[in-house]
Amino acid sequence: MVNKNRNSVDKPREECAVFGISVQSSEAAGITYNALLAMQHRGQEGSGIAVATDNNTILYHKNTGLVSEVFTGKVLDRLPKSHTAVGHNRYSTTGSDTCQNVQPFITEYLTGRIATAHNGNVTNAVELREELRKLGVHFEATSDSEVVSSLIAYYIMKTGNLLIGVREAAGKLEGAFCLIVLSGDGKLVVVRDTDGFRPLCLGQNDSGLAVASESCAFESCGFAPLRDVEPGEVLVIEDGKITASDTINVKKTPGNGLCIFEYIYFARPDSVIDGLPVYEARFNMGRELAREYPVDADIVCGVPDSGLEAAEGYAAESGIPLVTGFVKNRYIGRSFIYPTQAQRESAVRLKLNPLSSNVAGKRVMLVDDSIVRGTTSEKIVKAMRHAGAAEVHMRISAPPFRFTCHYGTDIDGEENLIANQISLDEICEKIGADSLGYISIEGLEKACQKCRREFCTKCFTGDTLKIRKDALE
Prior knowledge:
Blueprint lengths: L16 E7 L4 H11 L7 E7 L5 E7 L2 H4 L2 H6 L5 E7 L14 E5 L2 E11 L2 H10 L9 H16 L2 H11 L2 E9 L4 E5 L8 E5 L2 E5 L3 H4 L4 E5 L4 E6 L2 E7 L10 E2 L1 H6 L5 E2 L2 E2 H15 L6 E4 L5 H11 L7 E3 L12 H11 E3 L1 H4 L3 E6 L6 H12 L4 E6 L27 H8 L3 E4 L2 H7 L7 E2 L1 H4 L12
Helix pairs in contact: 4-5, 5-6, 9-10, 9-15
């Protein structure tokens, strides 16, 4: 049930960001705000924060828009002082872009209230929704995350136990999910699916614990990374400490694993995911590209933002100087947030401007993270030539996209993926480059070999590249 409203954009779209905190201080809402700002790249359509109060209730604020737009100073002041909170940034892969679909979802049941933040895509949400409707559950939104929250509430009420209820509900979910559940009495329950498709990690300081989609959120909040939440792990956090743990009684799905595109594009370069720094992974991808596709060029330029680290790796391996090729307008968001194709195309031209003084008359090696439909790459190459580049070569730190994703990565339809339409040489000609090279699956495996998890690479292969390496090897 993937959102089809954006099926003409030229980049895969980010996932949501989740954050939870349990601390001795009463600044949970403000800390959550800082964390959501740090993870704005994972979702730009809506944001929300829920806090537990001293009288066993949950209060919240959420709306469509960026974090700074949703939470003004006055709004934050209205949220009560609290020791526990959960927050969410939304990019929709299911459900429309309305306030009703913004998270956290607040679900009431006979004996309590919970707030649920979810990152991922539950593939059996339609079936679960129908089962819950037969039990008398009413739905107001169209997101699979509302189904998840309602299912958790149902099992908490049925079992009479927070941990067991969340565990049992998680066992019914299929697909990808990282969950943070806040109860009215101030407990947090943290869950990562058994495949570990999306990242989730713990941070710690003297005041308590935090959990986030990416470790980059911790630095802005005064926390130090502690560890990753293990696939299938269920944790209860109370008064800043882990007080109980369990596991989902579901086996790992053969062929599934951590989404490799977290390293290629989604995550911030200062994050560490499952033992591997994102910066190191992207730098290594550039090195592998230089080994697989060398070229006689004068300069190497990265396409901002996620092509920059791979460009550094390419330059280091090849010995070709690394030069700034584009000036980026930092006040324009990623182009997929614009509703029409014309607006998206204008945004591409507005946010990246070639630095003519650096590229004029030079043989330029451009490094970018991916090609989906080819339209953005074509504009970038054309802009570089207009700036006076003598040659423009392009290297891509992801293999060619050939398949859609059922687990929450919003990739264009297979019929629109350029790699399914024409050959590599024809893609090179279409985008106007002098040469083109994609990293191989083997090169990607080598670049990410320090990750502790197996990877899902089905968007490239239709199957899964199975990698399990010890981070200390």
